[in-house]
Amino acid sequence: MAAIGIEHLARAPGRTMVSFGQGCEGEPLTRAREIAEGIRRMREETPRGSININTNGSLPENLGLLIDAGLDACRIRLNSAHQDLYEAYQPINYGWKDVVRSVKLARRRGIYVAINLLTFPGVTDLEGEADELCKLVQHVDQVQARSLAIDPDQYFEIARLHSAGGKRLGMRELLARLKRARKGLVIGNFARGLGERARP
């Protein structure tokens, strides 16, 4: 892990980044000790580029281990910032409060914080859901909005019972509200390299 990362960080041109938890790699916080050792070795060899983690934010203490080792960015995925709807999406052995702790820990420790917002028009853009997201983005630098791939009938039924409710705003208005809630918030679907990270 470290050998590949060192080679890439030292030599790759452009937006140079090593990222854990991409695609089907699983949840990297469950392997935090091994990843932290890899990050440490990379940083002993080169300060170049960015080291990122894509995570569900389930284990704040483990995220802290990675930050101690030299992690400088994280992206935390979620479908909602409303506890009831988030937990109805069935996280295993963790809850919304763990995710919030991870977001705030990352922010407090000074790393770049993005959320991977899994959107579902008709649910994510409800006014109550937007209000909760506006609170959360006070602690993040970037929102990356992507589609939540789920059976629509199933998710609408979950949302009927568990969402924060309110009138539907539309996705364009939701994103505009997020930008108004935090001046300088970046909304965009690619990771920012070290030199591209203007902080709100």
General description of the model:
The protein contains eight helices and six strands, in the order αβαβαβααβαβααβ. It is of the alpha/beta class and 200 residues long. Strands 1-2-3-4-5-6 form a six-stranded parallel sheet. Helix 1 (2-11) packs parallel to helix 2 and helix 3 (60-69) packs parallel to helix 5. The chain starts with a helix and ends in a 13-residue tail after the last strand. 36% of the residues are buried.
Provide tags for this entry:
200 residues; alpha/beta; 6-stranded parallel β-sheet; 42% helix; globular
Distance between the termini: 33 Å
Mean pLDDT level: 94
Order of helices and strands: HEHEHEHHEHEHHE
Q: Tell me the quaternary state.
A: single chain
Main beta sheet, described?
6 strands, parallel
Spans of at least 5 consecutive residues whose pLDDT stays below 50 are none
Give the SSE layout:
Elements: H1 2-11, E1 17-20, H2 32-45, E2 50-55, H3 60-69, E3 73-78, H4 83-88, H5 96-108, E4 112-119, H6 127-136, E5 142-147, H7 152-162, H8 171-181, E6 186-187
Parallel strand pairs: 1-2, 2-3, 3-4, 4-5, 5-6
Question: Brief overview, please?
Answer:
The protein has 200 residues and is α/β, with parallel strands linked by helices.
